[in-house]
Fold this sequence. Notes:
With 239 residues, this protein is an alpha+beta fold. The chain is 55% helix and 13% strand.
Amino acid sequence: MSRPQKLNALLQQIEKAQSLGEIGAVLAQFQTLIEVAHVNYSWLDHSDGIIGCSTLPEAWLARYAAQRYHRIDPVVLGCYTAFYPVDWRDLDWSSRVASAFRKDALAHGVGPQGFSIPVRGPSGQYAVFSVYSACDDAEWSRFTRKMSRDLILVAHYVNRRALALETSFEPLPEQPLSAREAQALSLLAEGHSRAHVAQMLDISEHTLRVYIEGARDKLQAQNTTHAVARAIAIGLIAV
Length: 239
């Protein structure tokens, strides 16, 4: 069976999984298929807890939860404001807290290479799907270029199934954005400049600024990037 056929078979298993444990078993197969050290799916729920499945060492998972590392983990924080996959090499690990966290992770056999997919579901659901390796930079660059599309696909299959299985999930209340405010944030999220967004919406840049400021106020965002991230997290816009 070819690799694409094996991947399709794993996606079907994810769709049929009846528990997060079963999804975890499929991730173990996926880990072997793509030849990485570990695969991890973490859903950060509204009560500040973590739901997920992983091939990571149990000792590290227990320590991560006990230390509440998700509050300072540069991967979790970096993915929250990202719209595309995140290579850990592009994150800021320079702070004392981040440096200590990374040292602890390495001591538990996690990393040093990592590639994470931010995944967002309806009304505020946020999760991170990650793969880990101990290879060198050149090999990791080749891997991520080759596998990023498959990783994104698996991440969304896992998240969709996890949502279906987690019946206790209660969406956050939605903030009301006007149609124009939502359009403006959506286009900015796609990477368009303000001038281009104004042109696409056939409005002046001044009017666009009014829409953006209105959205920022409703979302209680510190800046436009924060507003876009919150709108995606709450499920008001999709990228």
